[in-house]
Amino acid sequence: MAITAQTSEITKTMRGHPQARVAVTATELSGTAPKADGQRVKTTSSLLVVVALCSLVYGWCVPGAIAGEQPLPAHVAETREMILAAVRAASLEDLAAVIDASAVKPDFGLASGDNPIAGLKALSADGRGLEILAALRDVLDVAPATLPLGKDLENNLVYVWPYLAEKPLDTLSSADEIELYRLMPAAKVAEMREKKRWIWWRLAIGADGSLLLFKKMP
Question: Most exposed: 21, 38, 146, 185, by fewest CB within 10 Å?
Fold first, then answer.
């Protein structure tokens, strides 16, 4: 069959979640196929492919399922516990073990080449990293969302804390808003509603246990 393809791409913003962008690619395939009498007839079929364009770096993500009621995979739970152990020890240096164990270099929002521990201490208001440790404890105390962003097709979930970071602000329930006010001051909540995007701490762990990201979203 002789096939010709015409492809068009449309990018649109998800309603209520402006930082999530979805690319829709429609491909029309047309050609000719033989009939029983030996003649050929033109055929046309359409293929619609929807691709979620998500970036952990910029926070463009389609809301995922909340994983709070499901046990975390062993590797994810282990990394979470290692982070919380550093919090309990009040030692930002203990995060080095988590960083070293990750298959990729975590994104802390620091300049390229910066020592991550030193960089996080510099970001912390107290200069010792205690504010950073408090933020880690707060976000990990809330349920995560799951997003199918990983490279492993059979185990491609990425766990993102808090789940509120992946939920459209205009869909929050009263229980969600309580969690929100527990994480940030009222003034920051008001700013976030005005900007219509998540502008607080966000943490992501891959299904293999790699710490992928921890930074305050701009």
Answer: 38
